[in-house]
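User: I'm preparing a small set of examples for a lab meeting where we compare how different chains pack in three dimensions. I only have the primary sequence for this one, and I'd like the structure in token form so I can line it up with the others. Please keep the answer compact; I'll paste it straight into my notes.
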Amino acid sequence: MHILLVEDEPEMASVLMTALKRQDVVVDHASNLADAEAMARFGTYDAIVLDRRLPDGEGLTLIPRLRAQHIEAPVIALTAMSDLRDRIIGLDAGADDYLGKPFATEELVARLKALHRRPYVLRADQSIVGRLTYDFRYREALINDQALELPRRERLVLETLIRRPGRTVMRGMLEEAVYALDDEIGSNALDAHISRLRRKLDDVSAGIEIRAVRNLGYLLRAVP
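Assistant: Understood. Below is the structure token output for the 224-residue chain.
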């Protein structure tokens, strides 16, 4: 695995680089946003470990800039700001995972390996997760080129989740995608749509899990 570590504290960076190299991880190091963006643009990384507090700004601002350049390496936000609100901000900004300081380097390595194992391919016009392909042009879910029939709201749930495979999607974001402003939304309505969608995906062996993330939302990912 080849990663980019974006960390401005020399002692922390040294400790992490030593620990990661012991796990046969190749590490490039940047100490600020400008260098990190340049290195990500010209390098090929399996993941990016990104500190939030950097000398030239908020680390999370790097994520949309990279995505705009079609750099899709998953990002672990690494920060001392780790309460619930900060985690939500990090995930909403596009981070794939969030690890608060202090932490065990073994946990960081485990999270990097988990990101590296994700068997999904994301392209501009379609997303492939497990055995399911979602075509955004025709708004169709396909298993082995056969369309999976879904009611409108279940399809909208799936479409919203599959745009961010492996990432937590906030409950509010899902509700905004599924319901109009003047719709009356029952307290368990979204959960009911997701429950029915799960059953249908299981029935066709789609190889996908939709997992509830407590107090945050839902996460879609491939399973063996």
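A couple of notes for your slides: The helical segments are 10-22, 33-42, 62-68, 84-92, 105-117, 152-162, 171-178, 189-203. The two ends are 21 Å apart (CA to CA).

User: Perfect, thanks.
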